[in-house]
Design goal:
Layout: E1 12-14, E2 19-21, E3 38-44, E4 47-55, E5 78-81, E6 92-94, H1 96-101, H2 109-113, E7 119-120, E8 130-131, E9 139-143, E10 146-147, E11 170-176, E12 190-196, E13 203-209, E14 212-220, E15 226-236, H3 238-241, E16 247-264, E17 269-294, E18 299-326, E19 331-359, E20 371-403, E21 406-431, E22 434-435, E23 460-485, E24 488-505, E25 508-525, E26 531-543, H4 547-550, E27 564-579, E28 582-598, E29 601-604, E30 607-610, E31 616-629, E32 637-650, E33 655-657, E34 664-674, E35 677-689, E36 712-724, H5 733-736, E37 740-748, E38 756-764, E39 769-776, E40 781-789
């Protein structure tokens, strides 16, 4: 339409692949490729040219009626991103600008996920998260339809490197906390579906802070056939780790390079390449530590002096080719081939000599705060030589076909996993000159009063060497349809997955299993004055065991381990409304999971050790609420609340809380700016999680240790000032060359809360007591950041 809001006939609308013109009433229809940025050009002989960029999902329709002015002043390039108002599939979409704006002690998409209801991250140094009672291994992560994996040997957040997902390259972020469709794979908890950019012009981004740096570049050829984006990241967590209680020399250096390249052979055939090389090194030489604990009336402290060091090395190489063939407007075929190779080494020898005692609490005393009376003296020697080499190769065909309002999707996938693993760990504990016997030993525990004359044994001793091959055949087929039911809009989805796997290896008896997973979704939007949407989803979800789940606590591989099974039901509601003349949405979901063939595990920081015997049943239920919208005009913020209860019954001994029984969760992500100075912005990332069961030794009976850790409370705040903004013009040439230039200050854990995720257990040989000394996470840390965009 023109500036008088009258229709314009014979206006031209063109893209790289198609074109059309408006009719006499100004109407037009054009079909563009899904899940990629497409530039449309609107031209007319009497009006100024308009350029708009669209990024739509498969099957999505949008109405766009630009105003073509006759005046010299013309609107700038318009960028429209998919933000479906009716979320019929139950998937949460996160704007990529939020990922790049709001950082954290461990920046990445996980830093934003922790503010969503049902998602639990109680370690700011880790990228691992649990969803609705599941553990870290129950989450699927895809980048451009390609599944990616997390490290195998990492046992603590300090050792973790960068998240696989590079936020500088991200175009779309979709997250489902349960009830997801059959096309998303075989896991029990969640799906994180990432789409990387397809560039349409040249761009350069750079980010530098006291904790690392990143740079990314994107470009496209003159003929628009070849386009690509590349990102390099460097991360040094010394600023955070040097603030922990354990003093010493620490060198955590993490770096990676990623690229995503697209070549268009024809309008129907596109080929993509996704590549990643990651190098993570962690070196630690602890020296000493003092941890104060106890009560005001009985303050105590643990003093530890260390010798030795830890050296960890994790190298990852990943490459994937994806061919897209658009046979016609209704049929799309894809072929994906990927290889993931990781070599991991965890080596350490650390001697810890400790003493525990009462602290002088007399404020006027010159020895105030010092340990005066020792209740326990001992030492602990830990040793590890753990090495792993894993090669995972995948070939997959995917397709989708649209017939009227029906969408049919299918896939056939083959995966070969070749894993070579050496596990050597032992621990010797000496208390007051006496070696402590293993926890499973039948030796009398009242040493030294009754001396033992047999051979000495390490407190813990695990040795295993495994060479395992797993072959997997997977397939799915699903049907989706949007239609009407009376005056209501409805959405249907039904699908089924099949998964067959075979475990082989040296000294391992071959074992094969097959499972089938039917799943369904239904959504309805009544024709009401209130903008309401109701959803129900559920099905039978299996999780065939990965290598980590096949290996028991002694390191032995058990090929007969079954797939964990979950019957999952989700009821959801979305209420869209306006408040202060701005859009808001309240999303509510209630869920229930009934799990059988459960593989119990213990959780130590972020390392999971499975029993590998499927000897438990479990359940999880809860309620998630999220209110998001423009609390401040032009910015998106949200408030989240989650309630969860999950318990397991091991060998019919009764139900106890699972390690991820996160009862209450509150999350806030809030953005604001100064009205008179819009260049000055602030964000708040706040999380409160009630304590989970844990902090107990990994070798003990969980029925004897059901104490909970303290609540996790953390607030990160950031301030930024835009020296250069794309919405303003400048007289300086160097400023005109930049699209954005921002300087910022971030305060992590601004209230300096002492959070802990594990305990160090110290035994007093005389009283037979074990003391739980908390291992505190990072305190308040200040960071400075400079960001630039060309």
């Amino acid at each position: 339409m023109d500036d008088a809001h009258m229709p314009i006939a014979n206006a031209n609308i063109t893209s790289n692949t198609s074109g059309t013109t408006t009719n006499e009433n100004g109407f037009y229809e054009i079909k563009i490729p899904a899940n990629s940025e497409v530039v449309l050009e609107f031209t007319h002989i009497l009006h100024k040219r308009i350029v708009a960029t669209f990024n739509l999902k498969n099957g999505q329709e949008i109405e766009f009626n630009p105003v073509m002015n006759l005046k010299v002043e013309q609107i700038a390039t318009v960028v429209i991103r998919s933000n479906q108002r009716q979320n019929v599939t139950g998937v949460t979409t996160i704007a990529p600008e939020i990922l790049r704006t709001i950082k954290g002690a461990q920046p990445g998409v996980e830093n934003i996920l922790k503010t969503l209801p049902g998602v639990n991250i109680s370690n700011e140094l880790s990228t691992q998260y649990s969803v609705r009672g599941g553990n870290f291994d129950e989450n699927l992560v895809y980048v451009n339809d390609i599944e990616v994996y997390r490290p195998f040997l990492v046992r603590s957040g300090q050792q973790e490197g960068l998240s696989f997902v590079n936020t500088d390259l991200v175009q779309n972020v979709d997250f489902s906390a349960g009830g997801f469709q059959a096309k998303y794979g075989d896991k029990l908890s969640s799906v994180l579906d990432i789409t990387y950019k397809t560039p349409i012009t040249f761009g350069l981004n750079a980010d530098v802070s006291l904790m690392g740096a990143s740079v990314s570049a994107e470009a496209i050829s003159k003929d628009s056939k070849l386009s690509g984006i590349i990102g390099l990241r460097y991360r040094d967590n010394s600023l955070v780790l040097n603030s922990l209680e354990t003093e010493g020399m620490v060198k955590p250096v993490f770096a990676d390079v990623q690229t995503y390249v697209t070549y268009k052979f024809t309008d129907k055939l596109y080929v993509n390449f996704l590549g990643n090389i990651s190098r993570n090194k962690y070196t630690f030489q602890p020296q000493n530590r003092q941890t104060n604990f106890g009560t005001v009336d009985n303050p105590m402290a643990l003093l530890v002096y260390y010798e030795g060091q830890e050296k960890d090395d994790y190298n990852t190489y990943f490459g994937a080719f994806k061919a897209n063939y658009f046979a016609n407007e209704d049929l799309t075929l894809r072929l994906i081939a990927s290889t993931y190779h990781t070599t991991e080494a965890e080596h350490f020898d650390i001697l810890a000599q400790y003493r525990m005692g009462e602290v002088n609490s007399n404020i006027g005393d010159e020895n105030f705060g010092e340990v005066e009376f020792s209740e326990g003296i001992g030492s602990q020697l830990t040793h590890a030589r753990n090495d792993l080499d894993a090669l995972i190769t995948t070939v997959e065909h995917k397709g989708d076909y649209k017939l009227d309002d029906n969408i049919f999707e299918w896939s056939l996938k083959y995966t070969h996993e070749d894993i070579r693993d050496r596990l050597v760990e032992w621990e010797v504990i000496d208390s007051a000159g006496f070696s402590i016997t293993p926890p499973y030993s039948k030796i009398l525990k009242d040493q030294p009063y009754q001396p033992y004359h047999g051979p000495l044994e390490a407190f813990q001793n695990i040795r295993a060497t495994n060479a395992v091959q797993i072959d997997r055949f997977q397939a799915y087929a699903q049907w989706s349809k949007r239609s009407e039911l009376g005056t209501s809009d409805v959405f249907y989805n039904f699908g089924v997955r099949a998964h067959h796997w075979t475990v082989n290896g040296e000294g391992i008896e071959s074992n094969s299993q097959t499972v089938f997973s039917p799943r369904a979704q239904f959504a309805i939007k009544p024709d009401w004055d209130k903008d309401m949407l109701f959803r129900i989803a559920g099905g039978l979800y299996y999780q065939p065991p990965f290598y980590r789940e096949l290996r028991d606590s002694s390191g032995t591989v058990r090929p007969e381990v079954k797939a964990q099974k979950s019957i999952h039901l989700v009821l959801g509601n979305e209420y869209s409304f306006k408040m202060w003349d701005r859009p808001f949405k309240l999303v509510s979901e209630a869920y229930y999971k009934h799990l059988t063939d459960v593989n119990p595990y213990t959780l130590e920081n972020v390392r999971i050790r499975y029993s590998a015997n499927n000897n438990a049943t479990a359940y999880a239920y809860g309620l998630d609420l999220r209110l998001n919208g423009e609390f401040v005009p032009g910015t998106e913020s949200w408030f989240s609340f989650g309630y969860l209860k999950t318990e397991e019954n091991i060998e019919d001994r009764g139900y106890i809380a699972r390690p991820t029984d996160q009862r209450l969760k509150f999350g806030v992500l809030f953005q604001d700016y100064v009205p008179n100075i819009p260049e000055l912005k602030v964000y708040l990332n706040l999380v409160y999680n009630t304590g989970v069961p844990g902090g107990s030794p990994s070798y003990v009976d969980p029925y004897d240790y059901q104490n909970r850790l303290r609540a996790y409370k953390r607030a990160d705040i950031g301030f930024s000032y835009a020296l250069v903004d794309r919405d303003r013009t400048y007289t300086s040439k160097w400023k005109n060359a930049l699209k954005e230039l921002t300087i910022g200050v971030e305060v992590f854990n601004m209230f300096d809360v002492q959070n802990s995720i594990t305990n160090t257990w110290v035994r007093d040989v005389y009283s037979k007591r074990q003391y739980a000394i908390p291992n505190y996470l990072s305190p308040r840390v200040l960071n400075v950041r400079l960001s630039m965009k060309l």
